[in-house]
Design a protein that fits this description.
Elements (H helix, E strand, L loop, with lengths): L2 H12 L3 H19 L8 H9 L15 E2 L5 E2 L5 H4 L2 H7 L5 H5 L2 H20 L4 H12 L2 H8 L2 H21 L4 H12 L9 H9 E2 L3 E2 L3 H25 L11 E2 L3 E2 L16 H9 L4 E2 L6 E2 L7 H4 L14 H17 L17 H11 L6 H23 L5
Antiparallel strand pairs: 1-2, 3-4, 5-6, 7-8
Helix pairs in contact: 2-7, 2-9, 7-8, 7-9, 7-10, 8-17, 8-18, 9-10, 10-11, 11-13, 12-16, 14-16, 16-17
Length: about 400
């Protein structure tokens, strides 16, 4: 056997299945997030899981340092969709309803979900037909930029975001393989039950089930099943809101107190209400323009917890504009729909590194990036992935280790 033949044989022996590689990448990400992230402190989700396990919809012990809604009969409601707490019920079942599982588990549960997301992202690109090389690079870009910060920090709002990513990736994994539309609808509903804007990805799901290579675009029975799945979760969320605030669409945001006698809507960034198109420029400023502050103290580049541009922190995402194919238009439409409520929200995501709300659209952006780099990945994409990972490593070091932040 020639040397070239031996090399080829050795290369084939090193090839592993996409499933195994996804698991290994997910485990590696889990360890990275757990090691680099501080313990989750003051999180609302573990105590809410414990409350659900005890048959309550509210936290019985006041947590005045968090944005919660007081009950007339004592205790506090969590003014957020409840699905992230549901993911922690298995842990609460193990520890018992009276155990402070947030203190017991630290940031481990968030790191586990973050690792699952990385595995699911790789598996999604595999099902989307992306070759091994670009699949690895795109997964690395996903795992080592904005998602790294959010999964590692895992504060009260951050855990909701990685849960939304998990359910969104699960749903799209079903949709791109044209498996259970009912399951995909349920998973999309659970994503929205973690972060409401993610439910607006529905057009992308509908398009994935509408296309078939044999007969093109058609409305199919799968669409009814998709709608049923989303509708079942939506009905559950509506009932949850009625039980707490008497309205199916009231999650409690406007009831959050601020200061001695005011509400969150009295804060300066909500001067036009919770949602307003007038807030869009401030989000775009953070997303595209904000950079580190240059100071005369080492290490000289000081990030702000107000945020930083994706051009600086995750530039590989902008390569999604290179996507080509029949699904490009509907994927971009879905990205725009998902991001619009985020851009119209009064606050822009602080505390954060980069612009964390881009994660709401991340599963869709992975599909677009897969269309841009289906067969091979060029030097530009590799450079931007490495750059984003290096910037995040720097940010995590100076913020979490040095406390060098404004």
């Amino acid at each position: 056997m020639t040397a070239a033949a031996r090399l080829g044989e050795r290369s084939r022996s090193l090839v592993i299945s996409p499933t195994l590689e996804a698991v290994l990448l997910g485990l590696g990400a889990l360890v990275l997030y757990w090691v680099t992230g501080p313990p989750a402190d003051g999180d609302v989700w573990p105590p809410l899981a414990e409350a659900f396990l005890s048959g309550r919809l509210y936290l019985p012990v006041d947590r005045p340092w968090l944005e919660l809604v007081p009950r007339l009969d004592g205790g506090q409601y969590v003014p957020l969709p409840p699905v992230p707490a549901l993911t922690l019920i298995p842990l609460a079942l193990i520890t018992g309803p009276d155990t402070a599982i947030g203190e017991l588990a630290g940031n481990t549960y968030a790191s586990v979900v973050g690792g699952i997301n990385v595995a699911l992202g790789y598996w999604l690109l595999s099902g989307w037909g992306v070759a091994v090389g670009p699949r690895r690079w795109l997964t690395a870009g996903f795992a080592l930029t904005t998602h790294w910060w959010v999964a590692g920090m895992a504060g009260p709002h951050h855990y909701a975001e990685i849960c939304a990513v998990m359910f969104g990736l699960l749903g799209l994994n079903l949709a791109v393989r044209r498996h259970s539309a009912l399951g995909a609808g349920l998973l999309l509903g659970l994503a929205a039950g973690s972060r409401l804007p993610t439910g607006l990805a529905l057009p992308a799901y509908a398009a994935l089930y509408a296309w078939h290579p044999a007969d093109g675009w058609r409305v199919r029975r799968e669409h009814a099943r998709l709608a049923i799945g989303v509708g079942l979760v939506s009905a559950g969320l509506a009932a949850y809101n009625v039980a707490r605030f008497g309205s199916p669409i009231d999650f409690g945001y406007a009831h959050i107190p601020s200061g001695e006698t005011g509400l969150i809507t009295d804060e300066p960034w909500f001067s036009e209400g919770l949602l307003s198109i007038s807030y869009i420029p401030r989000h775009l400023k953070v997303m595209f323009l904000d950079a580190f502050q240059v100071v005369d103290q080492a290490p000289f580049f000081r990030p702000s917890l107000s945020g930083a541009s994706l051009v600086l922190t995750a530039p590989f995402l902008f390569l999604a504009v290179l996507a080509r194919g029949r699904f490009v238009a509907v994927l971009w439409l879905s990205v725009a729909l998902v991001m619009l409520p985020d851009l119209m929200w009064g606050s822009w995501g602080f505390a954060q590194f980069g612009y964390r709300r881009i994660l709401d659209a991340m599963p869709l952006l992975l599909l677009l990036l897969g269309l841009a780099y289906r067969e091979r990945v060029d030097w530009l994409a590799r450079t931007l992935v490495v750059w984003g990972a290096a910037v995040h490593a720097y940010g995590i070091w100076v913020i979490n280790v040095l406390g060098f932040v404004s």
